[in-house]
Amino acid sequence: MLRNMKEELSIEEEMKIEQDLREPFGDYIAPSLSVKKKIAHSILSREEKTVLLLDKYGFTIDFIFAGLTEKHIEYITKNAPKDYKDNILKLLQDQETLKGVFEIARAMDGDLGREAMQNQDRVGNVIQYIKDNRIAFEF
User: Fold this and answer.
1) Is the separation of the CB atoms in 91 and 97 below 8 Å?
2) Which pTM value belongs to this model?
3) In a 3-state reduction of DSSP, which class is residue 30?
4) Which residues lie below 8 Å from residue 123, measured CB to CB, with a gap of 6+?
5) Cα distance from N-terminal residue to C-terminal residue, the chain
């Protein structure tokens, strides 16, 4: 049932929305690949300015990174605090986590069809952007 548009959210509802924005992964311990894809799609659908609502530790998690776009990473480069950028650099140094990022991207592409590579390409472009602009992440 649709709510009356003039009705305000309760404090509990507001807190739940805020929590879901900050930690979309908060309710999951060792999520399945399908849950990881769902969270990556959630990140992918966000406007670039809202990506900074994520908890800084979210940027060390494969399924968060798997949902980032070039526009997100550009916005992070220009606007994020240093600890957010530090966590992104840590993720790039962790080969196991990167393997997970590409596994999620491949699974997202698999949902699109046999030959789809758009999510893998997107993740590759995000990684390349970070490498090309590494100095901006270090300061």
Assistant:
1) yes
2) 0.79
3) coil
4) 65, 66, 68, 101, 102, 105
5) 49
Q: Which of 41, 59, 32, 60 is nearest to 111 (CA)?
A: 41
Q: Which two tokens stand for residue 38?
A: 């769902």
Sign of the alpha-carbon dihedral angle for 1, 51, 16, 104: positive
Please name the residues in contact with 29: beta carbons below 8 A apart, sequence gap of 6 or more.
none
Instruction: Find the Cα–Cα–Cα–Cα dihedral 20, 31, 74, 105, rounded to 10°.
Output: -140
Residue among 44, 33, 98, 41 nearest 68 (CA) = 44
Provide the Cα torsion 92, 137, 109, 117; round to 10°. -100
Does position 27 have pLDDT exceeding 80, yes or no? no
78 against 28, higher pLDDT: 78
- The number of CA neighbours under 13 Å toward the Cβ of 128 is 7
